[in-house]
């Protein structure tokens, strides 16, 4: 259980982030819900409060240092120090190679790669002070297996996996663990808005179906728990068999 712990979940206004925030709260954590979409973040926080846990919503860009600093200050003031960080916020547009511009690449890298770095820089001091911490980054099976029309996205998520391993080694002796969850084809609002036939793609996957956000949330909850205190630098693939570790 996560009783007495404070978690930050970025990109938690909907989809995977909302499912992760709800699961951590149901396991006992108080949750700071971060998202550029403040209205959605407030909805997530309200669901958590209705279920009996403390939660706040912080609006802002997870790749903007000033927004992060403000969110950390608000979280400290209303909930306390943070010992669980889930870097979930990400962009994942499908873009044909010929249409992939430097601006699109840079914008995605700012959120998907720079964002987790900045959030870790802001929150690891809390973990060091506490002598314990859980960093869980959300990567992707697209980085493991490749994905057409996703060169920028796959590259960024490959970077997240490498970043996680580096953090794990550097902080292994401090009580702080760093792991990542690599989702596969998960049925979210973002996936349903993508230019593909969700049911058709799911039908040719090993399990013949898409995953659920709750599958990812369960993996994150394990890595955030005391049961995972000897697991670090690990990529936990939750992908229905798309990529076999």
Write the SSE topology:
Layout lengths: L5 E5 L4 H12 L3 E6 L2 H13 L4 E5 L5 H14 L5 E4 L14 H29 L2 E6 L2 H5 L5 H20 L5 E8 L5 H4 L5 H6 L9 H12 L10 E4 L7
Parallel strand pairs: 1-2, 1-4, 2-3, 4-5, 5-6, 6-7
Could you walk me through the main structural features you see in this protein, from its secondary elements to its overall organization?
- The radius of gyration is 17 Å and the shape is globular.
- The protein contains 9 helices and 7 strands.
- It has one domain (6-236): NAD(P)-binding Rossmann-like Domain (Rossmann fold, 3-Layer(aba) Sandwich), CATH 3.40.50.
- Helices cover 47% and strands 16% of the residues.
- α1 (15-26) links the parallel β1 (6-10) and β2 (30-35).
- The protein has a 7-stranded parallel sheet, with helices on both faces.
- 48% of the residues are buried.
- It is of the alpha/beta class and 245 residues long.
- The chain has helices at 15-26, 38-50, 65-78, 102-130, 141-145, 151-170, 189-192, 198-203, 213-224, and strands at 6-10, 30-35, 55-59, 84-87, 133-138, 176-183, 235-238.
- It starts with 5 loop residues before the first strand and ends in a 7-residue tail after the last strand.
In short:
The chain is of the alpha/beta class and 245 residues long. The chain has a single domain, classed as 3-Layer(aba) Sandwich (Rossmann fold), CATH 3.40.50.
Number of helices: 9
Total number of distinct structural domains = 1
Could you say what the CATH architecture is? 3-Layer(aba) Sandwich
| SSE ordering | EHEHEHEHEHHEHHHE
Strand content: 15-25%
Find the CATH superfamily.
NAD(P)-binding Rossmann-like Domain
Mean pLDDT: 95
Q: What's the CATH topology label?
A: Rossmann fold
Query: Could you give the order of strands across the largest sheet?
Result: 3-2-1-4-5-6-7
CATH class: Alpha Beta
Sum up the overall morphology in one term: globular
């Amino acid at each position: 259980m996560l009783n007495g712990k404070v978690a930050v979940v970025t990109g938690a206004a909907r989809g995977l982030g909302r499912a992760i925030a709800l699961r951590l709260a149901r396991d006992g954590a108080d949750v700071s819900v971060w998202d550029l979409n403040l209205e959605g973040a407030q909805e997530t926080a309200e669901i958590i409060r209705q279920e009996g846990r403390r939660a706040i919503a912080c609006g802002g860009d997870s790749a903007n240092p000033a927004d992060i600093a403000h969110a950390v200050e608000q979280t400290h003031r209303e909930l306390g120090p943070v010992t669980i960080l889930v870097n979930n916020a990400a962009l994942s547009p499908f873009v044909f190679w010929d249409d992939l511009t430097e601006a699109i690449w840079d914008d995605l890298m700012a959120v998907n790669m720079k964002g987790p770095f900045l959030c870790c820089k802001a929150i690891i001091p809390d973990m060091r002070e506490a002598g314990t911490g859980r960093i869980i980054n959300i990567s992707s099976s697209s980085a493991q297996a490749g994905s057409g029309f996703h060169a920028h996205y796959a590259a960024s998520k490959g970077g997240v996996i490498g970043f996680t391993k580096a953090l794990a080694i550097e902080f292994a002796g401090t009580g702080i663990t760093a792991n990542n969850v690599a989702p596969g084809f998960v049925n979210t609002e973002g996936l349903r808005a993508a230019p593909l036939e969700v049911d058709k793609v799911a039908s040719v996957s090993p399990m013949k179906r898409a995953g659920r956000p709750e599958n990812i949330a369960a993996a994150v909850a394990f890595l955030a728990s005391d049961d995972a205190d000897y697991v670090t630098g690990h990529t936990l693939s939750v992908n229905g068999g798309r990529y076999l570790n």
